[in-house]
Write a structure and sequence with these properties.
With 319 residues, this protein is mainly alpha-helical. Helix content is 52%, strand content 7%. α1 links the parallel β1 and β2. The protein binds tryptophanyl-5'AMP. GO terms for molecular function: ATP binding; tryptophan-tRNA ligase activity.
Length: 319
């Protein structure tokens, strides 16, 4: 069975972009593959953070992932598995400064006063992925650049020290690889920096979701077409609708005569998508979530420890 892995950074509340871009794609593969999902709490510390908020967001993220149907058997918090940081250091030793510096994460958030770990963020991500002999990494479009660096680092390590790592591929969904902010359809829906009504959080109540969708920025053309360049707002709404209903955005475009009708359908579809997740989330006991995380970290060590041992031996460290 192929090995799939993905992760979520608890720097804010999980949103619809996370759900469509990565949560649902990996949850959908739990029958036909070995899936690993973790909460990237170490990555969350690469920007300024508040310790209490980090703990709360890590628990919320874990609960929402379980409620969304990810397989709990290999599911944990990154910081509970020290092999992530150990492999990170070994990989840093084969990564070039320019490669890390070119990554979008550092370009967007780096600058005077930023943390060194923001620069090495993509190397930790490479360690995350290579640790589990991952074949495929379901992610949104914004993470594909990090997957390319992961491949480069894995190939370099393999050619310098002998085949040690599986070289993975990033897989973005055909529909919804980049869900845009509802208030500014030229930027990605995100956990931080969203416009006021731009991001739909998975825990938003139905009336809030409806209000956000009804206020979504469109255009003055007044025709429902799937034309992302000319009509990014309308295209984004069609993409969200298609992702929530397993439809095709182009075909769906022909079924609406106006923006109000389209928005009402999108609001209904998003509410119907998140309602069961919210119900399951509300029924979770936080101590069960903690147990799931701890048990998952123990099981994850079964693949992580041998990989790190292999890498240590290959690079020339003593047993
Ligand atoms: P994060 O937490 O920013 O995002 C988690 C996942 O959601 C996807 N995503 C989106 N997809 C579609 N439209 C959007 N607007 C949107 N916003 C986010 C992201 O592409 C991602 O797949 N660096 C990662 C976390 C990470 C990771 C890893 C991922 C750490 N280690 C190893 C995969 C493998 C991040 O910041 O994700």
């Amino acid at each position: 069975m192929p090995r799939l892995l993905t992760a979520f950074k608890p720097t804010g509340h999980l949103h619809l972009g996370n759900l469509i871009g990565a949560v649902r794609p990996i949850a959908a593969r739990r029958q036909d593959s070995d899936t690993t999902v973790f909460i990237a709490d170490l990555h969350a510390m690469t920007v300024q953070h508040d310790p209490t908020t980090l703990r709360a967001l890590t628990m919320e993220c874990a609960g929402l992932l379980l409620a969304s149907g990810v397989d709990p058997s290999c599911f944990y918090a990154q910081s509970h598995l020290p092999e992530h940081t150990e492999l990170h250091y070994l990989l840093e030793c084969v990564t070039h400064y320019g490669e890390a510096h070119r990554m979008i994460q550092f370009k967007e958030k780096g600058g005077t006063g930023s943390r060194i770990s923001l620069l090495t963020y993509p190397v930790l991500m490479a360690a995350d992925i290579l640790l589990h002999d991952t074949d495929q990494v379901p992610v949104g479009e914004d993470q594909l650049q990090h997957l390319e660096l992961t491949r480069t680092v894995a190939q370099r390590f393999n050619s310098l020290y002998g085949t040690t790592f599986t070289v993975p591929v990033g897989v973005a969904p055909l529909v919804g690889a980049r869900i845009m902010d509802l208030g500014d359809p030229n930027r990605k829906m995100g956990k931080t920096g969203a416009t006021d009504h731009g991001s739909i959080q998975l825990l938003d109540p139905p009336d809030v979701i409806r209000r956000k969708v009804m206020r979504a920025v469109t255009d003055t053309l007044g025709v429902v077409r799937f034309a992302p360049e000319e009509q990014p707002g309308v295209a984004n709404l069609l993409t969200i609708l298609a992702a929530c209903t397993s439809g095709d955005p182009r075909e769906l475009a022909g079924t609406f005569t106006g923006y109000g009708e389209l928005k009402a359908a999108v609001a209904d579809a998003v509410v119907a998508t998140v309602a069961p997740i919210q119900e399951r989330y509300a029924a979770l006991d936080p101590s069960d979530v903690r147990q799931a995380l701890l048990g998952g970290a123990k099981r994850a060590r079964d693949t992580a420890y041998p990989t790190v041992s292999r890498a240590r031996a290959a690079i020339g460290l003593l047993d």
